[in-house]
Model the fold of this input.
Amino acid sequence: MSCRPIKLRNVSHDTFNCMKKKLQNSGIHVPPGNRGELSGKGITADFEWDGQSNLTITITEKPFIVSCEVAAMKIKQFVRECHGS
Done:
């Protein structure tokens, strides 16, 4: 069962690339491009960035013991760490 989509606004090109790099450095596979499937550490998610400012991430698989809210919070943390960098 997938979680509700996480919709992030004001995600610049630099923030998007920074987030992808941080996810990869944390052991999450991130394909090139503006859309695809993230996977690693028991989590799978689809992402789509519109190339300007809107990023949507939908967690499609996660460990049973991890809630959608906790998984979403972790993803948002990567964006916050990169925002404005």
The chain has a mean pLDDT of 90. The radius of gyration is 12 Å.
